[in-house]
Amino acid sequence: MSEFWLLLGMALATMATRIPVLITLSRRELPAGVRRALHYVPPAVLAAIIAPIVLLDEGAPNLALDNAMLPASLIAILISWRTKNLLLTIVVGMAAFLVWRTIF
């Protein structure tokens, strides 16, 4: 039962810090520069999550040939950049990962 109160308290604390900001900003028009900057937040967050997974192994850089995630990620980035097709990017990236992993 104490877990319930803990989760409820955490939810309330989270909402108490976010809802007033969202309500305040929803009534105003954001400046063009802020809107442009916010456009880059999702790719930056995604890169910050994925880069350590791809480039590090237990905190140390992993640029070895057996790191299949690195070449697969580079191929997926290239496909995404050239085609802007999410499904094709995922399929080609996974295929590159599996082929690289099989070879090495």
Structural notes for this entry:
There is one protein chain. The protein has 104 residues and is mostly helical. It has two domains: 1-38; 40-104, no CATH class. Helices cover 77% and strands 4% of the residues. The protein has five helices and two strands. The chain has helices at residues 2-26, 32-38, 41-55, 69-83, 86-103; strands spanning 56-57, 60-61. Strands 1-2 form a two-stranded antiparallel ribbon. A hairpin with a 2-residue loop joins strand 1 and strand 2. Helix 4 runs antiparallel to helix 5. The longest helix has 25 residues, at 2-26. The mean pLDDT is 94.
Quick recap of the structure?
This protein is mainly α and about 100 residues long. About 75% of the residues lie in helices and about 5% in strands.
Number of domains: 2
* Coarse morphology: extended
Q: How would a textbook summarize the main sheet?
A: 2 strands, antiparallel
Query: What share of the residues does DSSP label as strand, in percent?
Result: under 5%
Rg over C-alpha atoms, rounded to the nearest angstrom:
20 Å
Strand segment count: 2
- Report low-confidence residues grouped into runs of 5 or more: none
Structural class: mainly alpha
Q: How helix-rich are the residues, as a percent range?
A: over 70%
- Overall pLDDT: 94
Strand arrangement across the biggest beta sheet: 1-2
